[in-house]
Amino acid sequence: MTVDARKDWDTYFMDIAFMVSTRSRCPRRHVGAVLVQGKKLLGTAYNGAPMGVPDCSEAGCMIAEEYEFVDVDGEDQMIKKQRCVRTIHAEQNLLLFTDRIDRENSSVYVTDEPCWTCANMLANSGVTEIVFYRSYPKDTDKVTEMMKQKGISFRKLEHYEPPHETLMTVSN
C-alpha cells in the first residue's frame, strides 16, 4: 500500500470488527461487531459469556440443538442447528452497550452474518445498514427476506480479506 492509498471505509470498519473479535474467548467462533454513524465509530462488541460468569473456555460450551424445516427447491427439509446458550452474541452485546439514539440511521459491521435472533433485534434497533463478511447459511434466506421487508440494507462484503492475525477456524 502506498502512503497516499487509504483503505475504503467498508474495509476499515470490517477490519475493526475483526480486531474486536479477538477479544472473544469462544472456542467455536470469534465474532466482532461495530456500530458506525456516518464515518464515526460509536461502539464495539464481541461474543462471550455475561460479565463475571465463566466463559466457554473456562466452563465449556452449553450446546443446545434446534431443528427447523426449510424450503429447499420446493421441498421441506429438516435442518439441525447447534448453538451455545452460554454466549451472548456480538450483535446483542452491541445493542446492550450502545444508546438507541446512536443507533438511529447507523450501520453495523459484523464479522458474521447475523443469526435469526440477532437479525430480529437489529431490525428493531434503528440501524439502517448491516454489513457482514462470513455467511451464516442456516438463516440467510429468512434474514435476507426480513431485512428487505424492513428496508434495511443488508450486504455481504465481497472481496474482503480479514487481517491475518484475527483469523481462526470457525465451526458451523
TrEMBL record:
Positions annotated to bind Zn(2+): 89, 115, 118
GO terms under cellular component: cytoplasm
Keyword Metal-binding applies: yes
CDD domains, A to Z: deoxycytidylate_deaminase
GO MF annotation terms: dCMP deaminase activity; zinc ion binding
GO biological process, one term: pyrimidine nucleotide metabolic process
Domain of life: Bacteria
Active site per UniProt: 91
Cofactor dependence: Zn(2+)
InterPro entries reported for this sequence: APOBEC/CMP_deaminase_Zn-bd, CMP_dCMP_dom, Cytidine_deaminase-like, dCMP_deaminase, dCMP_deaminase-rel, Deoxycytidylate_deaminase_dom
Keywords (A to Z) from UniProt: Hydrolase, Metal-binding, Zinc
Protein name: dCMP deaminase
Organism, as annotated: Paenibacillus pini JCM 16418
